[in-house]
Amino acid sequence: MTHALRVLEFGSIREQLEFHCETPLSAAASQELMPTLDPAEVDRLLDETKQAYDLISKVSAPPLGSIRDYRPVLQRVAKGGVGGGEELFGIGEAMGLMRAWKSLLSNIRNDYPLLWPLVEFVPEHPRLEEAIADSLEANGDVKDSASMTLGGLRQKKRSISARIVDTIQSYTTGSRRDLLSDPIYTMRDGRYVIPLKAENKGKIRGIVHDTSGSGQTIYLEPEEVLQMGNQLREVEAAEREEVVRILTALSGKVGAVAPEIAGGLETISALDLVLAKARLAFAMKAAPPQRGEPHSIQVQGAKHPLLDPKNVVPLELSLGGRQGNILITGPNTGGKTVAIKTIGLFVAMLQSGLMVPALDVRFGPFTQLWADIGDEQSLQQSLSTFSAHIKNIGEALRTLKSGALVLLDEVGAGTDPAEGAALARAILSEMQRKGATIMASTHYGELKAFAYSTEGFTNAAMEFDAKSLRPTYRLLVGAPGASHALKIAERYGISKDVVEAAKEGLGEQHQDLAAMLERLEQSQKLARIAQGEADRRLADLRKREEQASKKLSEAEEIRKTASAKAQGLIEEALRQIRLEAAEIFDQLKQAGTSQKAMDQARGRLKDLQEVGQDFANEFKPKAKPKAEPTGAALLSGTTVKIDGYSQTGVLLADPRDGKAQVQVGPLKMTVKVSQLTAVAASPSKEKPRVNVGLQKAQTATTEIHLRGTRAEDAMGELEKFLDEAVLAGLPSVRIVHGKGEGILRQLTRQMLGRTSSVKSYREAEPAEGGAGVTIAVFK
């Protein structure tokens, strides 16, 4: 397989994978990636990559880029050595990232069952992480807060340094500045010094640490600074000892769990490699493969992963399984080798757990991968091109297993054509007998006939445009292709006379066969164009069907909306009618035995009944009543037509805020101005407007149950119930809302409190239902 991976350029895929790795360990592992031949392991690797692909598309995961290979440091501290501050800080940071990934996947482990085991056993030592973070800066410096001793020493160091600076500055700014070469101070061997003129030596007591190149300046540490400098050195030495003590203590804690941390680094890097496979899939615009027949691959829209996708003609191909083997013919530079390499590289990637750049992939793992592609000539081994090819093929034949994938480019080439064709035919037959899946290319006409007549083989050709004399790089399965050698030769500058001489040298039968193949290619092209047109029209038809279905859905939605709107109009009209009926019943109650008042009430009830009947008739199918618009402005007193109503009404006031109040018979309605049209006043008597209240008076009940009803629905039902009770003239009603959390009880009593027809309400007695029931009394 090593030879096959080399000629397929699998190493370049490894390099692309390495680019997407975040940790050094996973990057190193990517360079060792090899296809597996175990079908179960292939399935596991691909499922693992699919889960990682899904994870990074949905979850913002912690980056792993700061994790380094700390295993050498861990080995050192495990043996009692001391780690550097930056190394220990990195280990603490790595432990935090490992723990963060474990926490993340722990919450979604059921969705990603193959990723969870990669972090399930990473170490969790939050206290050690905290100790490292509290003691060290990101650059490895030990913090002042790492210990009280260190904090005190550094405070003392700062204090002494400040005193030294103040003292030495007194030499550069005071009366003795004239003794100096320059009014500055500097450092020599870590000591504060002043540049004293050589002729002034002895005028300031101290120690000389250096002399200028000219000898005119000496660098002197003043005596009083010297004492403080010695104190500073003592503090610095103590500081270094305390830093070493802190690093030693931290190293001991890390060393105690070093094997766990090292194991965690390896498992988190294994997770990073899987994530890198998913990132590479996104970069390649790859598709998750589906399981196909064993030892087969089917691709649609496949593109070679190492070529510029913008310039690649997509490949569609089915190889192996029931589709059998493929023998590709066609002109040189037509794309045969690219097609073979694409399939070989796809198989190597898929069996390594990598997705491939294609629109659709169906794949069943192969047992081996053999490839003989390109120029295998070796000067060092004294092998010709033909000999090198035959050596590779011979090794394949000796160890070939059933279910292997064999890729042969220009099989049998490089020797006498007759012998080469016969040898190629025998090789292909033997490989087929041993159960291999074969994809090969050739120029031999004998092999085209072999593929045509041998069961399990299918001819395929790389399309060639005879008009432009250029290949289209499109693979056509089902028929052999012509080589077009003479046409290509003419295109690349061979004179017409030479080409004609070559044609004359060909046998008549060969010329007829070549012409037949060219006509077959043309026929295939026309058939493909026709098929494309048929597919286009079918797609257009389906699109129109979808549009029609969408229109039907929209019509149904409009019908539902209209129905809901009509229901709203009905409810509003019924509400107005109930209020009108309540007034009539109040009039009857107050009339007592007055015949005149009773006659008036009966008249109003009759009008109300007629209005209700008229309103009901509006929802029966009938011709839309016509009203002659006058074009008049909508002002108070204007006769108007309301959309959806057959009767006209009168504006009670000028419209405001896009709405207007309209008197329709005995009813007052507030409607949108957009629903109104000014019309000529009708000479006929307008009928009062709205419902069948008397029927409700006969069927009204004294109790309503609201338990188990949504609050919004319950309030609607209660409002309707109260209106009907008023219309029926009931003295009181019983409202069962249940106890529960008291929400329905509270809403019920709020509505009763703002209903003008309710005289009072109270909680029911225990025998009447207690806190779960409210009794309402009407006026």
Question: Which key phrases capture this entry?
Answer:
779 residues, alpha/beta, MutS, DNA mismatch repair protein, Chain A, domain 3, Rossmann fold, six-stranded mixed β-sheet, five-stranded antiparallel β-sheet, 23 strands
Can you describe this structure?
The protein is of the alpha/beta class and 779 residues long. It folds into four domains: 2-125 and 257-284, MutS, DNA mismatch repair protein, Chain A, domain 3 (Orthogonal Bundle), CATH 1.10.1420.10; 146-248, MutS, DNA mismatch repair protein, Chain A, domain 3, CATH 1.10.1420; 291-505, 3-Layer(aba) Sandwich (Rossmann fold), CATH 3.40.50; 700-778, Ribosomal Protein S8, Chain: A, domain 1, CATH 3.30.1370.110. The protein contains 21 helices and 23 strands. The strands form five sheets. Strands 10-11-12-8-13-14 form a six-stranded mixed sheet, with helices on both faces. Strands 18-17-16-15-19 form a five-stranded antiparallel sheet. Strands 1-2-4-3 form a four-stranded antiparallel sheet. Helix 6 (85-107) crosses helix 10, helix 7 (126-135) packs antiparallel against helix 9 and helix 19 crosses helix 20. The termini are far apart.
